[in-house]
């Protein structure tokens, strides 16, 4: 646990990446595996993970992210895209996977199916979009922690025009929305922010024991 805390203290929102350094295929696969293993409400994972490595595409996306250098200088850009809406197929597809993976007859899962649908289907369209977007942030937390454990630098970013990202990445026509993005790579020696002391609330102001 001490090394885990040390790694979390080591990480920071990298402002300038070393464009000459690339995350290895193995490390990228491990990072994505950790992200895919993230918890989600009911286990439904109502989002997709896009890995943008193509330099031309990232140059195209950069103006839609306020021109931030991390978009093009990082090794990879990861986009967590939530489902804009969903129907009963979200639950059905998940439970089909459960049935196949665990060898459970579909009929035995009917009660759980009815329960999930009773909670999710009545949601308004805006509430559905908000709920699926929240799930991406659970995955984001896992991604950042896993990257720190691998000594890979990251910069989570909300400063971008999601509508433009959706258009350029073809997300809208797939029923997806760019919720949050993460630049992944290795810090540049020129990034002065790596030397800043980490600032967090004092534990007594953040944590309450009841």
Automatic annotation (TrEMBL):
Assigned keywords, A-Z: Flavoprotein, FMN, NADP, Oxidoreductase
Nitroreductase domain segment(s): 9-186
Cofactor needs: FMN
Similarity section: Belongs to the nitroreductase family.
Name of this chain's protein: Nitroreductase
Organism of derivation: Arenibacter algicola
Lineage, uppermost ranks: Bacteria, Pseudomonadati, Bacteroidota, Flavobacteriia, Flavobacteriales
């Amino acid at each position: 646990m001490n090394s885990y805390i040390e790694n979390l203290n080591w990480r920071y929102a990298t402002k300038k990446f070393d464009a000459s350094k690339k995350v290895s295929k193995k490390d990228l696969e491990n990072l994505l595996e950790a992200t895919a293993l993230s918890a989600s409400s009911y286990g439904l994972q109502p989002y997709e993970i896009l890995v943008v490595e193509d330099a031309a595409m990232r140059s195209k996306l950069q103006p839609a992210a306020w021109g931030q250098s991390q978009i093009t200088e990082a090794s990879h850009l990861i986009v967590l895209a939530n489902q804009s809406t969903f129907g009963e197929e979200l639950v059905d597809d998940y439970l089909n996977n459960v049935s196949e993976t665990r060898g459970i007859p579909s009929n035995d899962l009917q009660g759980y199916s009815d329960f999930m649908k009773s909670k999710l289907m009545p949601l308004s369209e805006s509430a559905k979009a908000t709920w699926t977007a929240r799930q991406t942030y659970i995955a984001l937390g896992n991604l950042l922690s896993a990257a720190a454990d691998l000594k890979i630098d990251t910069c989570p970013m909300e400063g971008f025009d999601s509508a433009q990202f959706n258009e350029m990445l073809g997300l809208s026509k797939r029923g997806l929305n760019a919720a949050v993005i993460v630049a992944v790579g290795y810090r540049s020696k020129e990034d002065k922010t790596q030397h800043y002391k980490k600032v967090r609330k004092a534990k007594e102001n953040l944590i309450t024991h009841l």
